[in-house]
Specification:
With 320 residues, the protein is of the alpha/beta class. It has two domains: 31 residues; 268 residues, Divalent-metal-dependent TIM barrel enzymes (TIM Barrel). Helices cover 47% and strands 15% of the residues. It is built from eleven helices and ten strands. The strands form two sheets. The chain has an eight-stranded parallel β-barrel, surrounded by five helices. A two-stranded antiparallel sheet has the order 8-9. Helix 3 runs parallel beside helix 4. The chain starts with a helix and ends with a helix. 34% of the residues are buried.
């Protein structure tokens, strides 16, 4: 017979712990797995498709008539076009009063829109610029892409920033009265104002966000910013009026970028779309196809085929 008190107490403690663990296990057996539920919710959120309207840059399709282009764009499933209204554009700027109404009418016929007008306008000093904006606004166009400003390295950069700001404010005031919003595209390369995006921030930071904005070009942001493009993204996202999707790779011999099919180059699209979801971006997306020669009418069918493939890739990226 064991009369050792410490042995008896040890046995009692083991029995108590065993019964406590059993009770706890039974009590939680029917509770939901919170970690699993969280993971499932996270996965569901990740897979939720973005429903942003997608338009297509119409530069490769300019060999088509307005009606042919509108019909094709609708058939491909786009919400609209980013239409060129500028010298050499689908609508020549000098003929804007005659031809833009025809293009808008054709788009409406097939249930698509001019989501964005791409122009050569970046000031209101020139009469042709005022005519383009006034005509577009009357036809219901709500936003246009500006021609970029460029630096002159023989002059002071800060002084040029002041000049750009004054010109920009005059443009904003003119556009506000018309009800059309100027959007500025960031473009990689020497002399391009806005390539680094910090200078563009200085231009826009004090302006009403409903009157100004930018076309955030992830291809050019990556080419110009390298690893720092997420900083540029977060700096400028309050002014996103449109997002541009295209891709590039790097030519080591020529030491410069070249355009490639969407999703095959250096742009980190999974991360980019994840970031767009996190900021709840609901604005339009413009698909640009710039890696095939669009100047030769004989290559039109090839251009259409690769636009279809890029759009399929873009839809997959938007699904997450």
């Amino acid at each position: 017979m064991n009369t050792n008190p410490s042995s008896t107490q040890s046995t009692t403690r083991r029995r108590f712990l065993k019964s406590t663990i059993a009770a706890a296990t039974a009590a939680t057996a029917n509770l939901p797995d919170l970690n699993f539920a969280a993971d499932k919710k996270k996965k569901t959120s990740k897979l939720k498709a973005m429903e942003n309207p997608v338009c297509v840059f119409n530069k490769p399709l300019q060999h088509l008539s307005y009606e042919e282009q509108a019909k094709l764009v609708a058939k491909m499933g786009f919400a609209g076009i980013e239409g060129t209204v500028r010298p050499g554009g689908h609508v020549e700027a000098k003929n804007v009063e005659r031809d833009l109404p025809k293009q808008i009418e054709a788009l409406k016929k097939y249930g698509v829109e001019m989501t964005l007008m791409t122009s050569d306008v970046n000031n209101i000093d020139e009469a042709i610029n005022r005519k383009v904006l006034e005509t577009a606004a009357k036809l219901g166009v709500k936003r246009f892409r500006m021609r970029p400003y460029k630096y002159d390295y023989s002059q002071s950069i800060p002084e040029q920033l002041n000049t750009f700001h004054q010109t920009y404010q005059e443009l904003i005031a003119f556009c506000a009265d018309l009800g059309i919003r100027p959007l500025y595209q960031n473009h990689a390369g020497a002399k391009y104002f806005g390539a680094s995006l910090w200078d563009l921030y200085l231009l826009m930071k004090d302006e009403p966000k409903d009157q100004v904005g930018m076309c955030f070009d992830i291809r050019h942001a990556t080419a110009e910013g390298g690893l720092s493009w997420p900083t540029q993204f977060h700096l400028m996202e309050p002014w996103f009026g449109m997002v541009y999707c295209k891709d590039f790779d790097w030519d080591k011999k020529k030491k410069k970028p070249f355009n490639v099919p969407l999703g095959t180059g250096m742009v980190d699209y999974p991360r980019f779309f994840s970031m767009l979801r996190k900021i709840n971006y609901t604005g339009p997306i413009s698909l640009h196809m710039e890696y095939k020669d669009h100047r030769d009418p004989k290559l039109l069918e090839e251009s259409i085929a690769v636009i279809r493939q890029d759009y399929k890739t873009l839809q997959g990226l938007m699904k997450g």
